[in-house]
TrEMBL record:
Identification of the protein by name: Molybdopterin-dependent oxidoreductase
PROSITE patterns reported for this sequence: 4FE4S_FER_2 (PS51379), 4FE4S_MOW_BIS_MGD (PS51669), PROKAR_LIPOPROTEIN (PS51257), TAT (PS51318)
UniProt organism field: Gaopeijia maritima
Family annotation (PANTHER family): TETRATHIONATE REDUCTASE SUBUNIT A, TRIMETHYLAMINE-N-OXIDE REDUCTASE
Domain (4Fe-4S ferredoxin-type) ranges: 767-797, 826-858
Keywords: 4Fe-4S, Iron, Iron-sulfur, Metal-binding, Molybdenum, Oxidoreductase, Signal
Family assignment from sequence similarity: Belongs to the prokaryotic molybdopterin-containing oxidoreductase family.
Origin organism lineage: Bacteria, Pseudomonadati, Gemmatimonadota, Longimicrobiia, Gaopeijiales
4Fe-4S Mo/W bis-MGD-type domain span: 49-105
Family annotation (Pfam families): Fer4_7 (PF12838), Molybdop_Fe4S4 (PF04879), Molybdopterin (PF00384), Molydop_binding (PF01568)
Length: 1005
């Protein structure tokens, strides 16, 4: 270690063996031999974690990862703090990827269909069979794949060239209209990069940038930096669309426009700005035809409101407009995206908050139109062999596309799926790919930003898999058409040697390569800022009018992507099925979103099953009434309704694509989602909603509090906000702490009379947490991160419907101001509720066996093997954060238990459990500090929920340390503790009130 890197740090993030051996992804050569070791591997110390960097493969964003392994087994994924996209966080799908690695339904090995039945064969037999069929295909070969990294894409192109075939890339979440609109507007065929953090005013025309659109993890960090109150500054967010998505719920204002009228509104706003001096370039004549009056007629909004919004968009700049996103893909979607580009250009945002020189190059934008052509070729008999990797078009396309019939007509069909899906169920040969945590690869998320995807462990021995790149290279060699090196790893190294040469590094390649593996990403050849691009004359005939929708149904149908399943890929994971949808709080099944007034007209209520019919098909699902949707609109979520998704995902909900036509939007070729109207009819049946939602309103309990932005800075006055304002001393008294002076330094002690104040001394930490409700978006990534870190089991739909979910964190959602009838303020509050670790904990004195106890450093502990399940503690908890293990939910199929964290007890049935403040992480940091002869530093301990939060809403630390970040939060006039002023529980969790731009006291409830 002559370069000065400590051995501990080096082993934490670098797979040494991967740098020297292409066959071994890392140096954990005997992953299946957990303990004991006769001769232990050098980089494994039993009981000590080894960390590896990698790239998340759950969506096209390709965020950087850290992967924690124990004894050669991956047990937790986290965001890579040094990666520009993840910044230390991941989305819920990223955290659940560890469950996909060990999923019990993964294919055990290659399989071939004989006499209509799939049978196991060896890899040698499978490759020989496929090579034979490829040689006999005469170049009539089609490869359909999802989003891939640059090295694997090169290998796929080389393979297709060698066999004389065609490759088509398709992603169900692709935003092809945005890319085409960018080409038309600026002459650049890219997906722009949006800098939310540089804006003061954000306007979304429906794009769900906090959920599935673009790079949500990076966008969430920038958005909360913009929208979160910080030292008296706060940006504004306005959402435009017929339905409030989770992104919309975080808005300050909502303009509930007619579905499909985004272009008219954007052009109407741009016309106001152009009339007042903005430069519309070649679009000036178009703006004259789409003025404020035309926008008002198309959207249903008031002309004065549109003009006012346009002026605020510029006056409060820098500003940013995005959208309309996937749910707004209608027959004129390219025109709608172009209108938003024009608005940004007239407002001067290009080069400021909209960047074309460093676009989202990793964002998928492959249009459906290319696959539509391939479907025609299959149906026409011009394809003899079709191969599918990383895509599931049999599910992710509307049945009207004819894909299933066309695919079935191909003589030989091959799937590289690693687990059952609808497309693999039709295949003649299955060659299971490795999970991305077992495989080599790379990513190029933005120009100049490259990251390595390295194996973090040996392949799970239960599954005989092979990386798809190695299969294609082997096939080329078998056919006498070898192209390049023999393995994907060799291709990767060769490609990165080119990057090394371009980097200008003076270190040797091996040192540079190891540093790239350690850091997780490198910057090579990033383009210099090119400044603002100029609008070009449009080269395509477009109409900016709202499109006509199919049918004559009463409701417009909005089909939107799932923040949990995307287009359906993660529907097989029980963690994702059990995670309540952030908007509806429903798990395990589908629902039809409908405005309460519309439901009342139909005579239905929550849980009533309705039949939703369009000219293209029909589905039946229970109603969930939602005030955040227009009365003339209903909505269904994508990703549900899988028919082949293993034991956990099959038969869960309905697929809304059955209601859509298979239409490729022109000129982009993107699949149209906002395409039809539907009729809704009651069936007379009921389906109990599997929901964790309690009340949608707070009933004056002041749980999720807010304060008007205009009232900040007047903490000594009472301005009528919820709970009132309190000075610092009063805040600390409410929380069980009073300030004191010791040697001139302020400290905090337990309130005299606190039940557990006698524990420890002033030098003992009092661990606590602060959560900023002005930054929490409700994304629920913290729920999955906690589930993974603390071995929290899933329980299934029936148990959730009975109220027996076991999640340690419950993200509560309250409607304060939501009105779909007109434009105005919106106030939806999200509050993560976990064990409050009370100083006067009501749960502890009622436990007859002292299973619930108080630690000297202020945490509410739980001794599992002492608990006898009386549940007195849960009855006495005012926050209802204790959950009871009614059954042995942890009896999971092999090898899914490999994902368990060995540092956390796996609980049996009959045990009460709850948030522990990730006590294992606390003790690990304390032990490491003792070994190094120092005190625990602020920031040494990151709880799983804190680490997962890309919005940086959660802070954890020592409340007794006046310099700690969490202690500093106590000084905010926004700080309060839930119910403490009523019941004196003295919680260790503080919240910071949400900040609104409207008067909280007079808000409609």
């Amino acid at each position: 270690m002559s370069d000065g890197i400590k051995r501990r740090d080096f082993l934490k993030v670098l797979g040494v063996g991967g740098a020297s051996a292409g066959l071994a992804g890392c140096s954990t050569q005997s992953a299946e031999k957990l303990l004991p070791y006769v001769v232990p591997p050098e980089d494994i110390t039993p009981g000590v974690a080894t960390w590896y960097t990698s790239v998340c493969g759950e969506c096209a964003a390709a965020c950087g990862m850290w992967v924690r392994t124990r004894e050669g087994r991956a047990v937790k994924v986290e965001g890579n703090p040094s990666h520009p996209l993840s910044g230390g966080a991941l989305c819920s799908r990223g955290y659940a990827s560890i469950q996909g690695l060990y999923h019990a339904d993964r294919f055990a090995g290659p399989m071939v269909r004989r006499n209509g039945t799939l049978e196991s064969i060896s890899w040698d037999e499978a490759e020989a069979l496929l090579a034979e069929r490829l040689q006999g295909a005469g170049g009539n070969v089609l490869l359909i794949n999802g989003t891939t990294g640059p090295t694997l894409s090169d290998v796929m192109d080389g393979f297709v060239s060698a066999v004389g075939g065609q490759r088509v890339e398709y992603d169900g979440l692709a935003d092809a209209p945005l890319r085409e609109a960018t080409r038309i507007a600026f002459g650049q065929d890219v997906i722009p990069r949006y800098d939310f953090g540089a804006a003061n005013f954000v306007l979304s025309f429906g794009a769900d940038f906090l959920e599935t659109w673009g790079t949500p993890t990076a966008y969430a960090r920038g958005f909360t930096a913009m929208s979160g109150e910080d030292h008296g500054e706060k940006g504004m967010f306005v959402f435009v669309g017929p339905r409030l998505s989770l992104t919309g719920q975080n808005a300050d204002e909502w303009f509930p426009i007619e579905p499909g009228s985004e272009a008219a509104l954007a052009l109407g706003m741009a016309s106001v700005l152009a009339a007042e001096g903005g430069d519309a370039g070649p679009y000036a004549s178009i703006l004259s035809a789409y003025d404020v009056s035309a926008a008002a007629a198309a959207t249903g909004l008031e002309a004065d409101s549109i003009a006012d919004l346009a002026r605020r968009f510029v006056e409060n700049g820098p500003s940013l407009a995005v959208g309309p996103g996937l749910s707004g893909h209608h027959r004129n979607a390219t025109a709608a995206n172009l209108a938003v580009h024009v608005l940004n250009a007239v407002a001067g945002n290009i080069g400021q908050t909209v960047h074309l020189d460093t676009p989202e190059s990793g964002a998928s934008s492959r249009p459906y139109g290319e696959l539509e052509e391939a479907i025609g070729n299959m149906a026409g008999g011009s394809v003899d062999v079709v191969m599918v990797h990383g895509a599931n078009p049999a599910f992710s396309l509307p049945p009207a596309s004819g894909f299933v019939d066309a695919f079935s007509q191909v003589p030989f069909k091959v799937s590289f799926a690693s687990e059952p899906d609808e497309t693999a169920a039709l295949a003649d040969l299955i060659l299971p790919d490795r999970h991305f945590l077992e495989a080599w690869g790379d990513a190029n998320s933005r120009p100049g930003l490259y990251a390595i995807q390295q194996p973090v462990m040996q392949p799970v021995p239960h599954f005989e898999t092979k990386q798809v790149g190695d299969v294609l290279l082997s096939l080329g060699a078998r056919m006498g058409s070898a192209f390049g090196p023999a393995t994907l790893y060799d291709h990767l190294r060769a490609r990165w040697q080119e990057l090394y040469a371009a980097s200008g590094s003076t270190a040797g390649f091996e040192s540079w390569w190891k540093e790239a593996l350690r850091a997780g990403s490198v910057s090579v050849g990033a383009p210099a800022s090119g400044g603002a691009a100029v609008l070009r004359e449009p080269d395509a005939a477009l109409t900016f009018d709202a499109p006509a929708l199919d049918g004559d149904g009463e409701f417009a149908l909005v089909v939107y992507p799932s923040t949990r399943f995307g287009a359906g890929k993660q529907a097989s994971l029980p963690w994702m099925q059990e995670l309540p949808d952030p908007v509806s709080k429903i798990a395990w099944h589908s629902w039809v979103e409908m405005h309460p007034d519309a439901a009342e007209r139909l005579g239905v209520r929550d849980g009533d099953v309705v039949r939703v019919a369009s000219p293209h098909g029909e589905v039946s699902a229970p109603v969930w009434t939602y005030p955040g949707i227009r009365e003339d609109t209903v909505a269904l979520q994508m990703g549900t309704g899988r028919t082949v998704a293993g034991r956990f995902g099959t038969g869960r909900g309905v697929n809304p694509l059955a209601l859509l036509p298979a239409v490729a939007e022109q000129p982009s070729g993107g699949l149209v989602h906002l395409a039809t109207t539907v009729s809704v009819e009651p069936t007379g049946e009921r389906h109990k909603l599997a929901t964790i939602a309690g009340a949608d309103t707070q009933h004056d309990r002041h749980i999720a509090q807010a304060v008007a932005f205009a009232d900040l800075g007047h903490a000594e006055d009472d301005h009528g906000d919820e709970g009132g304002h309190h000075g610092l001393a009063e805040m600390q008294l409410m929380g069980g702490f009073v300030p004191a002076e010791t040697d001139g330094e302020p400290t905090a002690y337990p309130l005299p009379g606190a039940q557990y104040g006698e524990y420890g001394d002033p030098e003992t930490p009092r661990w606590g947490m602060a959560i900023d409700l002005d930054k929490c978006t409700g994304c629920s990534a913290c729920v999955v991160a906690c589930q993974s870190e603390n071995n929290v089991p899933w329980v299934g739909e029936d148990q959730v419907a009975m109220g027996r979910d076991l999640a340690w964190i419950r993200v509560e959602r309250y409607y304060e101001t939501v009105d779909a009838s007109h434009a105005g303020p919106v106030d939806v509050r999200h509050l993560p509720m976990m064990c409050q670790h009370c100083g006067n904990a009501p749960c502890e004195p009622v436990c007859p066996v002292f299973a619930a106890y108080h630690t000297p450093d202020g945490m509410n502990g739980q001794i599992y093997n002492r608990c006898v399940g009386t549940r007195y503690c849960a009855n006495n908890c005012p926050y209802k954060v204790r959950v009871f293990n009614w059954y042995t939910y942890t009896d999971v199929p092999e090898p899914m238990h490999w994902a368990y964290n060995p540092d956390v007890t796996v609980r049996e049935n009959g045990v009460m459990e709850k948030c522990s403040f990730c006590v294992q992480r606390v003790r690990e940091a304390q032990n490491e500090a003792v070994l190094e002869g120092r005190a625990v530093r602020d920031g040494d301990i990151l709880t799983a929920c804190q680490q997962s939060c890309g919005a940086e809403a959660i802070v954890f630390g020592d409340l007794r340390d006046p310099e700690s970040a969490v202690s500093q939060k106590l000084h905010s006039e926004r700080t309060y503790r839930v119910l403490d002023d009523l019941i004196n529980t003295q919680p260790g969790v503080s919240y910071l009130k949400k900040v609104t731009f409207h008067d909280v006291a007079s808000a409609a409830h």
